[in-house]
Amino acid sequence: MTANPIISAFDNQTGVATLTFNRPEILNAISIPMAEAFLDAVKTLSHQPGLRCIVLTGSGRAFMAGGDVASMEGTPEQTRDFINGLLVPLNEAILRLRNMDAPMIAAVKGPAAGAGLSLALMADIIVAEEHAKFLIAYNGIGAVPDCGCTWFLPHKVGATRAAEMMMLGRQLSAEEAKGWGLITRTASADSYDEVLATTVNQVASGPTKAFGAFRQLLDQAGGRSLAEQLEAERQAFLKAAHTDDFAEGVSAFLAKRPATFSGR
């Protein structure tokens, strides 16, 4: 069994953090130790100076095949304890990540199923290798989607398509997922690393605090009236206007040169 279920790395030069789900022998299926290690890694990142981008990926031939179903068998009490042991730390980690300014990119090779799909959907951008697969999978075991799937998926593809994936077990290829708006970019196996690196570099060199404001506005828009959203946008713009990146962006625009953002 893999000793470290989460590999966390941070590049001080680029500000890019990479969190790797690391149980390749069982397609990175989530165990309680993995969920706890994921939360610990996220807590560390929340205090990481110079963080500009977070990449989520998986070891081996899968992004993640979901929860460790073998561990769900047992008495009702054992099953309850396992589910809570899994979802309590995962849910906290998801909320912490979505409240950070640093944008998230999910780098998906192979299957992203169950909670693996949910965690990929949590990212702002998904870059998928052309042979990647996207599957809800919960209906196969009589379970309910978790880790935010019922929130993220309808936001990305609409309620009708989300219901089809959830109820009919619809598996999407990378090409289909891109057509549905579920993912952002696809690439062949040969070009995948280059496409991913280009996307990460582009995002990591952007105005990080503004990206965080983008996400918050998008996340909260569905629960607000237009008037409330307009006011939230105004307040976010005023806050952004006090950042170093805003000053640099305006200066660069007026000088007709590319902006060099610092993330501050």
Written overview of the protein:
The chain has 264 residues and is of the alpha/beta class. Helices cover 47% and strands 15% of the residues. The protein has helices at 32-45, 76-98, 115-122, 149-157, 159-168, 174-180, 192-204, 208-221, 226-240, 244-255, and strands spanning 6-11, 16-21, 53-58, 104-108, 111-113, 125-129, 133-135, 172-173, 185-187. Strands 1-2-3-4-6-9 form a six-stranded mixed beta sheet, sandwiched between helices. Strands 5-7-8 form a three-stranded mixed beta sheet. α1 links the parallel β2 (16-21) and β3 (53-58). α8 (208-221) runs antiparallel to α9 (226-240). It is globular and about 65 Å long.
